[in-house]
Design brief:
By secondary structure, this protein is mostly beta strands. The protein has one helix and 15 strands; from the N terminus they run αβββββββββββββββ.
Length: about 230
């Protein structure tokens, strides 16, 4: 039976003028479906006969496309080593108005830098910046009427002179409670024209004493005395 079928196929081929050996050939795979090697064309192209694709690169290769000729296809190449960007250079995702091929890789910043992007337009890329360093003990901090001096390291607080709230503060360790003052010792608020962290106060008096201040300058502190 099988021999009879082959005989019919051969007879039909002879009738149509096709050599018996070439009567049947399996269809070849479309060019666009074949993975391309290094140096071969790839990507989108003006080629309707291959469904507008010059093919896909093999694993480990990138399809490098000339941004000035985006419809001409590209060339399969080994990925380029990325050079980390410096302060002030562009980084991050592809800009929203640029032509970025599928092989596009976001630019990265050098170690110790971060890529600052616009939160309202995250697809527009960013700029490599050096993150603000937290301030150490004794350094200025907080916001003033003219400048922001940053934040303090963990374990420190930004303390301002209550007499000058519009100025920056200083990074200081949280104040320890001031023991009650004895007779003759300073007490009351810090003087108006001096900076006396971390408490901004000379403390309170022991039981049985009061902090006597000058009525004309009540904010310069006083002295513990018998009522």
């Amino acid at each position: 039976m099988i021999a009879f079928v082959f005989l019919l196929v051969g007879l039909a081929a002879s009738i149509n003028g096709i050599p018996e050996s070439a009567a049947y050939e399996p269809p070849s795979a479309p060019a666009a479906s074949i993975l391309k090697k290094a140096g071969e064309t790839c990507g989108f192209c003006e080629c309707p006969e291959t469904d507008y694709s010059a093919g896909t690169c093999e694993a480990g290769l990138d399809c490098e496309i000339d941004p000035n000729l985006p419809s001409e296809g590209g060339i399969c190449k080994l990925p380029k080593a990325q050079t980390p960007k410096l302060v002030g250079q562009s980084c991050g995702p592809c800009c929203s108005t640029c032509f970025c091929p599928p092989s596009f890789k976001p630019e990265v910043c050098q170690a110790g830098l971060s890529c600052e992007t616009d939160l309202d337009n995250p697809g527009a890329g960013g700029i490599c910046i050096r993150p603000a360093q937290k301030k150490k003990e004794g350094e200025t901090c907080g916001s003033s009427s003219t400048i922001s001096a940053g934040t303090c390291e963990d374990g420190l607080t930004c303390q301002k002179d209550s007499n000058f709230p519009e100025r920056n503060g200083f990074c200081l360790r949280p104040a320890a409670p001031i023991p009650p003052k004895k007779e003759g010792e300073e007490c009351g608020p810090c003087c108006a024209n001096c900076f006396c962290p971390p408490n901004f106060s000379h403390g309170t008096c022991q039981e049985g004493f009061t902090c006597k201040t000058d009525a004309a300058t009540p904010d310069v502190g006083g002295v513990c005395a018998v009522p």
